[in-house]
Backbone:
């Protein structure tokens, strides 16, 4: 996830794997706006590489089966200052349900 600030309603872009294995790219274009689904994809593997890349104001989400060949999932241009917060996130997609995930090969 890349976000403007720690405020829960801040502008952001997120690329994630849903519990069913599908990939989704979503963005909140301005603080306080609704989060919108931009694009989705599917992975043939239980393990998938995800990457968010920022060029100017555009954030693009990519996926890969091997960490070498990248396929774009979607792009958005949320209103985020040049210095932003980045990090990994985990959600169960179900209110009240706990979730866990494993992360490796994290780089900036």
Residues:
């Amino acid at each position: 996830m890349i976000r403007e600030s720690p405020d829960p309603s801040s502008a952001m872009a997120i690329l994630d794997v849903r519990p069913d294995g599908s990939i989704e790219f979503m963005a909140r274009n301005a603080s306080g706006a609704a989060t919108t689904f931009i694009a989705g994809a599917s992975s043939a593997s239980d393990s998938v590489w995800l990457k968010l890349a920022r060029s100017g104001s555009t954030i693009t989400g990519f996926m890969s089966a091997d960490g070498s060949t990248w396929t774009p999932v979607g792009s958005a241009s949320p209103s985020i200052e040049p210095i932003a917060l980045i990090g990994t996130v985990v959600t169960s997609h179900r209110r009240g349900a706990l979730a866990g995930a494993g992360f490796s090969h994290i780089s900036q």
